[in-house]
Protein 1
Amino acid sequence: MKIILLGPPGAGKGTIAKALMQHDESVQISTGDILRGAVAAGTELGKQAEAAMTAGDLVTDELIMGIMEERLQQDDCQQGYLLDGFPRTIPQAEALKALLSKLDERLDCVLELDIPRDIIIDRLTTRRTCTNCGEIYNVKFKPPRAEGICDVCGNEIVQRDDETEEAIENRLQVYNEQTAPLVEFYRNEGLLVSVPTSDLEPVMDALKSRI
Ligand code: AP5
């Protein structure tokens, strides 16, 4: 499967990507995870991205395309991939289209997680993430077995830096302005599959009807 996961912050893109990977050879490619890793490692990429990420703004298209052009040509992508958080602007979608055409590859579909705003805010304010392996938790919907400790690797789980009320508001506004137009873009490409949930079973059903 070569799938784009599209949806606002907190829609469940990372959660559903991890669940789908249990059923498929595809790899999850999360631009958010790549950037957070770069910030934590203090690399040049991380330094360039950090301020925008903390404020809930997007980093530049040039920076993202530099990462993704290299990443999508790595060997593990031959098995398929789940793009989580990319593309996020029309220029990124156009650049991806040109890259795939150059590589003679095509997407299977774009899965839109169309989740209402009140549910998203509830999920984001209660999410916790492992500082080491990136496993996603939720104090209400998916708590870890021991408070504050990752079930998978035993490291600390925390709230992300972009989970302040102000940054969440900004991320939602940025999504509406810069990313939501991709729904129409991919509908016109004949690739859009929209589901009003991020629960695995209905998502799998929607994908089966398509792939
Ligand atoms: P990124 O990491 O991509 O953040 P995001 O898109 O805002 O998405 P999130 O990770 O917040 O949410 P999600 O949809 O993955 O939801 P999750 O599965 O965690 O990007 C971060 C930043 O990096 C951006 O702001 C930007 O600065 C930069 N960036 C990244 N990509 C970029 C790009 N292409 N261009 C420019 N800049 C870029 O779920 C949320 C919570 O809900 C969890 O607690 C989970 O347990 C819970 N949950 C999920 N599903 C369910 C369910 N079905 N029922 C109950 N709870 C659920």
Protein 2
Amino acid sequence: MLIKANKLTDSYTLANNNEIPVIGFGTWQSANGEEAYNAVKWALEAGYRHLDTAAVYGNETSVGQAIKDSGIDREDLFITTKLWNYQRNSYDDTLHAFSDSLTRLGLSYVDLYLIHWPEPIEYRDHWQKLNADSWQAMETIYQDGRAHAIGVSNFRQKHLDELFKTAKVAPMVNQIFLNPGDQEKSIVGYNKAHQILTEAYSPLGTGNLLKNAAIVKIAAKHDRSAAQILIRWNLEHGYLPLPKSTHKEFIQSNADVFDFQLDDEDHLALDQLDGQEKQHTDPHEHNFHKTVAFLD
Ligand code: A2P
């Protein structure tokens, strides 16, 4: 399927008309220190200009250092980070959490700030108010210009319906676990209907899909890697993939997806994988805890 993007720096347009590069470099599970630093350094050298981190990844410091050392103009970069389940008790807590992220990143603004998780276990009996309060703070941050766009992550329809009851600014992005094995058609359709861009974390199924026989077959047919097929699948659906790697060659090859396209037969085979992996986590069932290791 043809897509409009021809290179890494081509972009989607968010509901507020801001541009967002079509592929983001994922850093989930890249350890703070040398691992995250080198990964981001190699990603920037390979031409990625969109980086995705989060407070809970514990690597904002290294991501920020690699950005600084790259010497790339800030306005040429698109940086996302996320509000974790701690420091979320109130409007003020959210403002503090955001400031802490900016400090760790060494930045004066981010391009996108997301609520990371809709139903933290500690707040499960009042997640509606929790999200409304956090969102109000995100709106302040947005209006101050310290986040150029705001959104959510791992939200389902019920979370977004609830948020819309009090939101003055609509979320521009919903970042979810998304790949051919977990196609999440319901929330993807909802996002689209509400002008919310769908970002795909774990577009490679955290690596698990790379050995899937159907994907390996399509990769062989195009003389491409399985990862490239999966990234291309995301782009051809209009999603924004955030592939993660800590290896220089993978980082480079995962960006090399603009000179081939999947055909109808490939799409049919990939679309049939829906439900086969089922790795995603239901926000209502997952019991993350408020205090995480990197805060110790
Ligand atoms: P590594 O980080 O060791 O390079 P996802 O983006 O779906 O979460 O998948 C990330 C996983 O996929 C990581 O384990 C990463 O390994 C692996 N990975 C990323 N790109 C490739 C690639 N091109 N070939 C093989 N494995 C890859």
Protein 3
Amino acid sequence: MNTDLYADIIIEISHEQLDRPFQYIVPDELRGVLRVGDSVNVPFGRANKVISGYCIELKDTPDYPVDKLKNIIEIRSGEMGAEGNMIALAWWMRSHYGGTMIQALKTVIPVKKKMTVKTHKRVDLSVDRETLGAVIEECERKHHTARLRLLSALLNEPTLPYELVRDKLGVTSPTIRSLEEKGYLRVTETEYYRNPVVTDAQAHTQYELSPRQREIITTVMDSFDRGTPGRYLIHGITGSGKTEVYIGIADETVRRGFQVIVLIPEISLTYQTLLRFYKRFGDRVSVVNSSMTQGERYDQYLRARKGEIDVIIGPRSALFTPFTRLGAIIIDEEHESSYRSENVPRYKAVNCAEYIAGARGASLVLGSATPSMESYYKAERGDYTLFTMDERLTGGALPTVHIVDLRDELRSGNRTIFSDKLRELMDEKLSRGEQVMLFINRRGVAGFISCRSCGYVVKCPHCDVSMTEHRGGRLVCHYCGHTAPMPKTCPECGSKYIAGFRVGTEQIETEVARMYPQSRVLRMDADTTKERGSMEEILRTFRDHNADILIGTQMIVKGHDFPLVTLVGILAADMSLSISDYRAAERTFQLLTQAAGRAGRGEQPGEVVIQTYQPEHYSVVTAASQDYRAFYEEEIEFRTLASYPPVRHLLEILVISDDEDEGFAAAGAYKAIADEHIGGSGRGYSIGPAPAAIVKIRDKYRHVLYVKHTDMEELVSIKDLIEKYMQAHPSRRVLTFFDFD
Ligand code: ADP
Ligand code: ZN
Ligand code: ZN
């Protein structure tokens, strides 16, 4: 006698009203075949339209009368399902980041379609080193930079993965082919993926670990071995040997038969870094990146599931790699904003990693030179074990930092965006043939108002964040909705130079070209990097010293190593201080610290000029002295006083509506729900609703409501209550989005 089987299915419709499991009968032929996570077709609705969905649970007893249930039609053979252990993660993500379950499921299934596994290529050196040396010399003479790059890489590493050569060294297929035709190298294709780097890894530069590095690795592994995997934050300046610690922990974890996920922001996935991992793990490591095809991703997915790889490296989606014996998750540069998803569910990789590591018994290791306030706060409270690494292993002095007060420049008649100090140093460095980077901090410059005479920024008297200029010249606070008229003169000093601050990279480029007509200038910003590969191309041109000055936005400050750069100019350091966001100071500190870190990476000592209207602001001062602790102390005080995360948690509820009154009413109802839930506990409160940053886009009205609470889970409950209310009061004209912290 067969026992009956029932399946809960999440159907593929992104509509809040249908965001719940629907139960179906598992027909005989699928019994024992259908697994939790599988993608299936089911009949849905009165018309029995065939619709796809995911099986999230199997049950022996039905929750509804059996005669009301329909049969599952089939398992969708071409589609990837979710791993069983990812279902719980999807539920967790749904409850912590909002959105529907189907959106959460699709997030944890990084590969949608099954593909035929393609062949894999590698590049082998096919001449002896002496011949190669001669060819390299010739390329140098003829300035064949792409060939030079590849051949020099092969000199160090005679076998390289084709993708690494193409994607990271930026050598095009025609170039590789022409070198192959000349007989210098061979491209080999294999059916089965074999990572070609199988060099005499250990013979290579395998230095002794420093006592500190060893201590960290041992602590992490001892906990793991005792069955109590820990959570760690490594605060270490650039060059202090963090990557080597990650590799050590990964290695030890793999030796114990477990697998490791390493997250590195895409922009820092450089050839050098990847090569270090390839050398240690050979064909047991794999890399995912955004330029991979579906087929390549599918291939990685399968290899991970089959246990053919031990270590995966990649950006945030690598977190969902289907390892069966996960032993550690390592996240480098954990403060990076790219670890936060911009699509619903807007998950944060660090928090998901914490959940996954907890559920699967894995160690969690976070590392950064400028840890996020949230992570450092957790370390302070003992949620994470903190390790500090404050010595550079490769020597190299910290740069000399000059802070220039832009108010003085205006006073002395300099109306340009280049201070006298910056120009003087630019003259000096450029005349010596050294390189200069100019950085303009343009994050979220949405029309804040400042005085160019005294640096005064118009801020909300209630929230201490800057007010934003709206059409019609009104100033609005995006947190509480407070409005004020646009001042004609500066309330602080009476100057008439008070206006929205707008300086762009293009404007700087024009100015630089005028001042230094002899210099070769590159610009890197959202406009010049639209095309795939263009960013790598700009960086490469600069590294090869085919340009003297690189102008850019925050893109240029991330982890790149340019040994010839001896001067970094930060043109308006406080621009990001003025964004209407409670993290403004944190962002500024991170950007300034990173930007300053670009100077003097080579033999020559570096200098940094920070131009600012607020030279006394603690984020500027502490970044100049590279003093993270000092910054943290000041900032946590501000967060405490103003009740911002990480001290309190913050739930942002965004209501988008066709009708202004209706949207406002919905936001008001949500506020009532939140206030009632908090009651008189004194541990939380709500603010708003207020018109959002851009009040009206495409005829939609936006309102925002904030709820603050000491306990994150309470905010999740409030979100759940509001969702219940939404299901009871469905409206097609009002859309609601939730966002935590
Ligand atoms: P981080 O990731 O903190 O920037 P890395 O691990 O990349 O630091 O190390 C910085 C430099 O120091 C690298 O060139 C690396 O090869 C070197 N290095 C790392 N550990 C050691 C060590 N124990 N002894 C000597 N050099 C080391
Ligand atoms: Zn003023
Ligand atoms: Zn306000």
